[in-house]
Amino acid sequence: MDKRFWSSRIQDLEPYIPGEQPKDRVFIKLNTNENPYPPSPKVLEAIRSAADETLRLYPDPEASQLRQTIAEYHGLTPEQVFCGNGSDEVLGLCFYAFFSPGRRVIFPDITYSFYPVYAHLFQLDFEEIPLNEDFSFPVEKFLRGSGGAVVCNPNAPTGRTLPLEEICRILEADPNRVVMVDEAYADFGARSAVELLNRYPNLVTVHTLSKSRSLAGMRVGYALGSPEVMAAVRCVKNSFNSYPLDRLALAAGEAAIRDVEYFEESRRKVMATRERTTARLRELGFFVHDSNANFIFITHPAVGGKELQQGLRDRGVLVRWFDKPRIRDYLRVSIGTDQEMEAMCRACQDILKG
Amino acid sequence: MDKRFWSSRIQDLEPYIPGEQPKDRVFIKLNTNENPYPPSPKVLEAIRSAADETLRLYPDPEASQLRQTIAEYHGLTPEQVFCGNGSDEVLGLCFYAFFSPGRRVIFPDITYSFYPVYAHLFQLDFEEIPLNEDFSFPVEKFLRGSGGAVVCNPNAPTGRTLPLEEICRILEADPNRVVMVDEAYADFGARSAVELLNRYPNLVTVHTLSKSRSLAGMRVGYALGSPEVMAAVRCVKNSFNSYPLDRLALAAGEAAIRDVEYFEESRRKVMATRERTTARLRELGFFVHDSNANFIFITHPAVGGKELQQGLRDRGVLVRWFDKPRIRDYLRVSIGTDQEMEAMCRACQDILKG
């Protein structure tokens, strides 16, 4: 690649690689933690009614109504809410807003693999702290002072959860740094750190509507934090892109947050299927981490991760394998419908019979 | 504001301030260069048919179909196309992708006021080259070597256009720097630099569907350039946000580009109204720059810019006034429907009678 016209800053940058989005859709798609259930019918109605001639006008750059709706849902004020184009954009803007060059940011070695990419992009110093042998969280190592900390909770791709008391210890250990808690998966059974927001001005939580609200296709994410801290993200966003959420994403986001009943039902189904799948895979000899997310992290003594992924792909099932140290023998499997998970388990059984 | 938790990089950052989006909609809104005509009916159809259960799935991170459609429209290949969340995001990503710290980027002093904001945000050195007295473009000063150049053509907020021959001179003067030509308004009568793309590997053109395609509410923009140069923007985007365009924005964008007939009709109407309004305002004693954009830049010897803006606001007409040296006595007036422009002219007449 001729990089003559590339900025000196990005000559060695390695982008994040998202899970495959097959164009043909014949696969059982358990590779990108999408929700197997459609968005609320009220979301589709809201979109259809917003799809009118007003699309010629810019959206509200402050996303005021959506922020109001999210604030009410969480019992906060709109000044404590920042909305962005999916939680990936929100995380990226937060990395830029809170972390300073020359001050080391810490996060685990096994976690959402976009964190080191943001750090590289923005030329931040960072350290990947190894998870313990059993992939539990090394809390003690997060108590040292640092330029910031990022905790994905439940963690991806392990699905393991850190209790709130431990998050409090990390927040208190160094009250001058921002601790970001990425709660992309928290709706599937973890206790959310949102209840800590009014106690810790250095806490920022990050949320997405892609998973528990079935809206991956609409790109809506948000952060919560103290008004002064949210003002920093707003300042970066308004210096980069005034309107990251289009009119239909705003309408969809609002309707999704408002339909609490649908949300509760949908996440309950996903959690129930997760528990059934976990039990079934353990019967097949898999080691499966206890998960509070909409995916499970699995390994089998008899078959390697890459081999298993390929075997599943050959049988029409897409799952995620990470070519990374320590987890090469693991697969991350998103929770689909009962039928999809049954098909996945049968495919595993078939592979193991060899 | 307590900036304790703000990155050292953003302590002095001053965000871009977009034109007001009034919540009540009783104004005649000529302040943000929106199109007075709705998007193509085919766009609304495409959105309604895409608003289904597949919104639970991530969009195509590569925007392949939209890029293919745009490539065909311009007679290019998809590798020469990059799509983003409005041309503001595209510009931001381009600033990061092409310009290096310590190498001075140049653009005019009077131009789209987001350029210096990106440069501040990303801590780039830059120089604002003064336009000539009559707001014509100082081509000679852009022939010196630099770390990059940005030319808005037609320029905002003046509406004045630089001929392609002059852009060629700038491209040739320093073939090792990227020259970005922001063509947000080019569809309203300027000759596009797209025809130069296959001759100059250092040329990048930037486009938006917000203006000539009436889709400000959907956030679709794109850049065109050589494959190696577009790969740089893609690299930055994929290190920041994999999916900036949601499924409905992708569908809307495609349908908008495909409906060439509607586009031609809509821009023809805007241009005709612009010419009528220009003539009318000149009769009222205004100085009006010749414009190839969907706005005009006007001043009147008898009344100051701020005063005129307020007078128009009092009469229900929103226009844009910039609190900046050299242009404080000017207003930028977006082209609305004939009726809206007639109301605006009557309001001006009323103010001048004073």
UniProtKB/TrEMBL annotation, chains A, B:
<keyword id="KW-0808">Transferase</keyword>
<keyword id="KW-0032">Aminotransferase</keyword>
<comment type="similarity">
    <text>Belongs to the class-II pyridoxal-phosphate-dependent aminotransferase family. Histidinol-phosphate aminotransferase subfamily.</text>
</comment>
<keyword id="KW-0663">Pyridoxal phosphate</keyword>
<dbReference type="InterPro" id="IPR050106">
    <property type="entry name" value="HistidinolP_aminotransfase"/>
</dbReference>
<feature type="modified residue" description="N6-(pyridoxal phosphate)lysine">
    <location>
        <position position="211"/>
    </location>
</feature>
<comment type="subunit">
    <text>Homodimer.</text>
</comment>
<dbReference type="GO" id="GO:0030170">
    <property type="term" value="F:pyridoxal phosphate binding"/>
</dbReference>
<dbReference type="GO" id="GO:0004400">
    <property type="term" value="F:histidinol-phosphate transaminase activity"/>
</dbReference>
<dbReference type="InterPro" id="IPR015421">
    <property type="entry name" value="PyrdxlP-dep_Trfase_major"/>
</dbReference>
<dbReference type="InterPro" id="IPR004839">
    <property type="entry name" value="Aminotransferase_I/II_large"/>
</dbReference>
<dbReference type="InterPro" id="IPR005861">
    <property type="entry name" value="HisP_aminotrans"/>
</dbReference>
<protein>
    <recommendedName>
        <fullName>Histidinol-phosphate aminotransferase</fullName>
        <ecNumber>2.6.1.9</ecNumber>
    </recommendedName>
</protein>
<dbReference type="GO" id="GO:0000105">
    <property type="term" value="P:L-histidine biosynthetic process"/>
</dbReference>
<keyword id="KW-0368">Histidine biosynthesis</keyword>
<feature type="domain" description="Aminotransferase class I/classII large">
    <location>
        <begin position="27"/>
        <end position="347"/>
    </location>
</feature>
<dbReference type="InterPro" id="IPR001917">
    <property type="entry name" value="Aminotrans_II_pyridoxalP_BS"/>
</dbReference>
<keyword id="KW-0028">Amino-acid biosynthesis</keyword>
<dbReference type="InterPro" id="IPR015424">
    <property type="entry name" value="PyrdxlP-dep_Trfase"/>
</dbReference>
<dbReference type="Pfam" id="PF00155">
    <property type="entry name" value="Aminotran_1_2"/>
</dbReference>
<comment type="pathway">
    <text>Amino-acid biosynthesis; L-histidine biosynthesis; L-histidine from 5-phospho-alpha-D-ribose 1-diphosphate: step 7/9.</text>
</comment>
<dbReference type="InterPro" id="IPR015422">
    <property type="entry name" value="PyrdxlP-dep_Trfase_small"/>
</dbReference>
